[in-house]
Amino acid sequence: MAGAESPATPDPFADKGFATRAIHAGQPHDPTSGAVVTPIVLSSTFAQEAVGVHRGFEYSRSGNPTRQALERCVASLEGARHGLAFASGLAALDVVCRDLAPGDRVLLSNDAYGGTYRLLARIYGPLGVEVVVADLSDLTAVEAALSRPTTMVVLETPTNPVLRILDIEAISALAHRSGATVVVDNTFATPYLQQPLALGADVVMHSSTKYLGGHSDVVGGFLATSDDARAERLAYLQNAAGAVPGPFDCYLVLRGVKTLAARMEQHCRNAAAVADLLVGHPAVGEVFYPGLPSHPGHAVATRQMRGFGGMVSFTMREGEAAAVAAVARTGIFTLAESLGAVESLIEHPGRMTHASVAGSALEVNPALIRLSVGIEDVADLLADLHMALAPR
Length: 392
Known about the structure:
- The strands form 2 sheets. Strands 1-7-6-5-4-2-3 form a 7-stranded mixed sheet, sandwiched between helices.
- Strand 4 (152-156), helix 7 (168-177) and strand 5 (181-185) form a beta-alpha-beta unit.
- Helix content is 35%, strand content 14%.
- Helix 2 packs antiparallel against helix 3, helix 3 packs parallel to helix 10 (247-257) and helix 11 (260-278) runs parallel beside helix 14 (378-389).
- It is of the alpha/beta class.
- The chain has 2 domains: 2-257, Type I PLP-dependent aspartate aminotransferase-like (Major domain) (Aspartate Aminotransferase, domain 2), CATH 3.40.640.10; 260-389, Aspartate Aminotransferase, domain 1 (Alpha-Beta Complex).
């Protein structure tokens, strides 16, 4: 399978900077035409020179040249030996979980994407997998949770939606001591801001729908690992389960990745300005942004991240009704689910992205608003929020 075979070809850009690798790694000029941009190879099947003799591709579910370029590029950005692309972030996580068996135990943060909880608790839970929720920003709680045999720890940092910061290196050390695999959802931070494998994680996953794609025009997922045996198994499951992206989707993500470094710098600048506006605003209660020195995870974020990201969350002092009203009043921030694209988005997690965790240990504050701060002119974004938060 193409994902497992990726490291066989040496990467001539392996020692280059991040932005250079984002543009060039895994993307040689097309040998037939000289095309600078990786071609979109739409063929579902590939001619074989003889039975079992081919040029690396047989059938596009098993491997496709456009997908291979994406897999090699993002693997390089994550500092991984292997990369595998999927049809969605949840499809990627599902493949990671495929070998879970009845009696296995999974540890999950008590602040996590609702879809992650739904997959683990409501799909794998009924199959006999125990899903344990804990505050993984508290290392004492992590150690206590790992006092029982645990198969896997699934964490995201910054978390979704209240942007807690989890210490990847410390959690990985504790998890490995108890024999657990560590899976880090790096969607919010992106490989530009954070390198989980270098901090001890076993597998990194992404919803490439978000910052990797960056333009709200594609749905995809990704896994990266440097464990050869694990990569071989994941590639087998990728092919066998079949939740792979089409060539055009791979092209769109690959196109987005080329500008990831530049976009993330602007996302971070704009988000910091938005957080500063919200702090002390009379309509706002708590502000959650790891770039604020007052954030409980600020020191860890400073240590393990290059920047603090483009996500900001906050609560409205007057509660849920005020939050629902505020998200409907913006003009530049679009009321929509998802995140990580060039345009700014605003949403009410309790009724939108996290509605599936209502009544669970992951239930979110109904007064919470989540912002995905885009790369528009920051003065326009600040004015939009001023207007939305003004007394009515």
